[in-house]
Design a protein that fits this description.
The chain is α/β, with parallel strands linked by helices. It folds into two domains: 155 residues, Rossmann fold (3-Layer(aba) Sandwich), CATH 3.40.50; 102 residues, Hypothetical Protein, Haloacid Dehalogenase-like Hydrolase, Chain: A, domain 2. Helix content is 34%, strand content 23%. The protein has eleven helices and 14 strands.
């Protein structure tokens, strides 16, 4: 199939509507293009456990789709479960990030298996993150001791106005080795350099022998910007942040109006 496309979708605010559901119409069209040989991949800041249910619904295992979890920190083939690409934060950064979180009264979590680990007081943002991903929160007494591994992603939580300030301070503090960005106004995400959605999409596309111009990337949030800029066709949802719209080749309907169906009809079918 020489006009085969790879459609890469953010989950929240893109694939799913505001009720966090894939609509029947969107599902129908995503199954249809996979039946025709096109590839679907999910790219999200979510950890892998929080993406599995959507991958299953879209039958990515059956059709040979991919999951890019932790903003691309880990790329997995749904068919074989093999890791295509993985890059984690060196453990040497842990204390610096934790000390900053404590002194600025930020929440801090990372991920281990099906658990969200924290060493700070559990707040509503963390509870939302755990619930969203069907994971449990485990508060540990000694966070520095418990996190004896390289984190694929670290998440800090704060009120939006505070998060905006801390994001800039952390970017300076952790430069040049780590990426610091907000996926939501209240979530500051930290990954190692070379981990963003564009970088991991590029790694995946090359690994499966496809080309950059065959990619269609759809997103709505700050963390989708790099892949929207990278794509052969970069798509912003109608509900996207303005900066994503400004950098997109195409603006589709919102996630509540089957925006993905519009993209499929326009660029794939």
């Amino acid at each position: 199939m020489n006009n085969r496309k790879i459609l890469i979708l953010d989950i929240d605010g893109t694939l799913v509507n505001s009720k966090k559901e894939i609509t029947p119409e969107t599902l129908k069209y995503l199954l249809k293009i996979q039946e025709q040989g096109h590839i679907v991949a999910l790219a999200s800041g979510r950890p892998y456990p929080g993406m599995k249910a959507f991958a299953k619904q879209l039958k990515l295992q059956e059709y040979g789709g991919y999951v890019l979890s932790f903003n691309g920190g880990k790329v997995i083939s749904c068919k074989t479960e093999e890791v295509v690409f993985q890059k984690a934060i060196p453990n040497s950064y842990l204390k610096t990030i934790y000390d900053y979180a404590i002194s600025n009264q930020l929440g801090m979590v990372t991920y281990k298996g099906d658990e969200v680990l924290t060493g700070t007081e559990i707040d509503g943002y963390m509870e939302y993150e755990a619930r969203l991903n069907s994971m449990v929160i485990h508060k540990v007494d000694d966070f520095l001791d418990a996190v004896d591994f390289d984190m694929t992603k670290c998440l800090l939580t704060a009120e939006p106005a505070k998060a905006e300030v801390c994001e800039k301070e952390l970017a300076e503090l952790l430069s040049p080795g780590l990426n610091v960005f907000r996926s939501e106004p209240y979530f500051i995400e930290i990954t190692t350099k070379g981990v963003d959605k564009a970088e991991s999409v590029d790694k995946l596309v090359k690994a499966i022998g496809m080309k950059q111009e065959d990619t269609i990337c759809c997103g709505d949030g700050f963390n989708d910007l790099t892949m929207v800029q990278y794509a052969g066709v970069g798509v912003a949802m109608g509900n996207a942040q303005q900066v994503v719209k400004d950098n997109a080749d195409y603006i589709t309907a919102s996630c509540d109006e089957d925006g993905i169906v519009q993209v499929i009809k326009e660029f794939i079918l």
